[in-house]
Design brief:
About 75% of the residues lie in helices and about 0% in strands. Helix 3 packs antiparallel against helix 4 and helix 4 packs antiparallel against helix 5. It is mainly alpha-helical and about 120 residues long. The protein is flat.
């Protein structure tokens, strides 16, 4: 039980830091210190990469690894596209990636996203 409580606290702290960073960037943009339009239009996929890293670092189990790698990989693909390293339209990649993601969820099972049945104390 204590381990689950620590995971929630780590998750809240992580999301708190994410909101602090985004809020600070928006404030600096509104005060004309940085160009947030350029920043967010080109670097928004980093949010997906951060979600993937959070999955890999905080959550446990095979579902967490699959989800973390999916989010980080998808974010890296979109980031490479927005920065011009690959010339693929994001919209042409989005639907196939969503279908792949749903297929992985069906194969692994929705209960595997970040939980391990042994750690939760439930039956297999």
């Amino acid at each position: 039980m204590m381990w689950r409580h620590e995971r929630r606290r780590e998750g809240r702290a992580f999301m708190g830091v994410v909101f602090l960073v985004i809020g600070t960037l928006l404030l600096l943009g509104n005060l004309n210190f940085i160009n947030t339009r350029f920043l967010f239009s080109h670097w928004w996929p980093l949010i997906l990469v951060v979600i993937g890293i959070k999955q890999l670092l905080i959550l446990r189990g095979p579902g967490a690894w699959i989800a973390g790698l999916f989010w980080a990989g998808t974010g890296a693909l979109f980031l490479a596209s927005t920065l011009g390293y690959i010339h693929v339209a994001i919209t042409s990649v989005l639907w196939p990636l969503m279908l792949i993601w749903f297929g992985v969820l069906i194969v692994v099972g929705h209960h595997g996203c970040g939980r391990n049945s042994i750690e939760d104390g439930s039956k297999m």
